[in-house]
Structure prediction request, 541 residues.
Amino acid sequence: MINWNDIDVKGKTKGTKKTTCPSCSHDRNKKTDPCLSVDIDNGVAFCHHCSDYSIKESEQKESPYILPKQDWSNYTSLSDAMVKWLEDRRISQLTAIELKITEELHYIPQANKEQNCIVFNYFEGQTVVAKKYRSGAKHFAKSKDSKSIFYNINSIIGQETAYIVEGEMDVLAMHELGIKNVISVPNGANDNDNQWIESQRYLKGVKRFIIATDNDTKGIELREKISHRLGKYRCEFIEFKGKDANDDLISGELEQSIKQAKKFPVGGTYTSNDLMDGIMDLYRNGLPKTLTIENKSFGTDFNKVFSPMLGQVTTITGIPSGGKSNFNDWYVINLINEYKLKGSWFSPEHSPMELYQTNLIEKVTGRNFYEKQGGKRITEEGILEYNEWAKDKIYLTDCEDGEAPTWTWLMDKFKEQLYSYGINIFVIDAFNKVILPSGNKLDAINDVMTKLTHFAQSNNVAVFLVAHPTKMRKDEKTGLYDIPTLYDVSGSADFRNQTHNGYTIHRMYGGQDKAGIEIEQCTLFINTKTKYNFQGQIGNR
Prediction:
C-alpha cells in the first residue's frame, strides 16, 4: 500500500491528478509515465500498472468506532476442519489466504458460549476496521461498535466496475472464479445508511455496478434498494440459478449466471422482449399500484380523486396562506408512514429547521407542541418517540456556509441524499425559493421542470413541488378569489404541461357566491392534473 504523503500531486489541492507511482515508477523503463490516478477530494489513489493503491487517513482526531485488535495475522493458520468446510463449498485455501480469512474462538450469543468460527476481516487499507464471525451452525457475531463498511472494499479502488453481493461467502465464491472486484453488504439483506456513507469515497469512482444479491424475496428487495441508491442507469443485476453466488459455484453454474447479467429497465431503447416481464405483470395483475392513503381523515373518496405514483412529479398550488404547504406536509408524512418510505424537505420558507420540525411533530403525533395552543400537548416522552420514528425517515435540507440555493446545487444534494439515505420522496417548498439559471425565464423554467421529471422517472422517486400562483382575481361583489389552476402558477405554462400530477388547495372563508347562496367555510382539495385516468379524475374535489 502506498503512503499517501509519498504521492506527488504537483501542488494540486482538489479534483483528480495523474502522476507517477511511488511503488513502481522507479523500476519501470517509462519512469515518467503517469500511471497513478489520484482522487484528491476522496483521498484514494490507484496505480494502473502495479495495482497498488493508497488511502488518505481520516483527519478526524478521534474515531467514532472501536477498532478490533490488529492481530489477525496470528490466526491465519486454518485447521484441517476449516479447510475441509471451505472445500465443501468449492472455496480453495488460496482464496481464503488472499482474502485474509482467519479462524478464531469467539463468543456466539445464539449458542451462549464460545465456538470455533471462520472470521471475515473487514480491511480498509491495511487496517482491520471490523470482524464478522460465523459459526458452523451459521450463527453470526460482529466486533463491538466497529465500522459499518462494505466487506472487501479495497478490491474496488481504481476499478470502473464493481460487483455487490449479499454475503462474505459470495465474495469468496466470485473470487474463486477470478472476479476480484467484489464487495458485500455487511448486514445481509438489511440495508442501512452508514455502510453507504462510510464507503462513499471508494464507490464514487465506480462507473458500473453489477448487483448480485440472493435470489429470494429479501435479496430482490435489497437489489431494488441498492439500485435505487446508485441509480439504475448504471446498474445491472444477476439472477442466480440457486440461492446465491456460492450455491451457483457449487453447482457449476456461477460463470453462466454472471454472463447473463441483466440491465434495469431505465432510459434508452427497448424491444418488446426487454419489456415482456412488465407487460405480463400488467396482464396478470392489472394496472400498476398507485400511492393510496389509508388514513380515514382524508375522507372515503380521496383515493378516487387523486393518487400519485413513484417516478412522478406532483405540483401543488394555491393562494398564499391557503394551507397548501400544511396539507402537502401532512399528505407526504402519511405516505412515508404507510409505505415505509423516506422523505427529504427543502423548505426555506419554514426556517428555522427546529421550528419546522415542531410542525411535523404535530402532524405525526396529533398533539400540540406548545402549551398555549389548547388541547392535548405532547409530552417529552412523546417527542422522543417521534424522534425514534423520524430519525431515519425525515430529512431536512438547507444550504451551508452562505451557499446560494441554485437548482444545480439542489439536484446535486438530492442525488447525494438518494445515495446516502435512500430517499423516496423529495419536497420542494417553494419553486421561487431556488435561483433559476440566468437567461430567458421561460427557457429556464422549462429546463428545470425537464430535469425534475427526468430525475423522478430515472430514480423512481416522487417529487412534490409547491409553486405559488400569480396574483389571483378577486370578485368585487362576493370578495372571493378565483381558484388557481396549474396554468396560473407564476412564470410558465410548463408547470401544467410538464408535471405528471397536480392539485390545488383552496381555503373558502364563507360568505355568499354570485347567486347569493351561503358558502361553507372549508378547505378544498382539487385534482388539477393526473397523468393517467386510473390515478384520479381531473377537476374532482
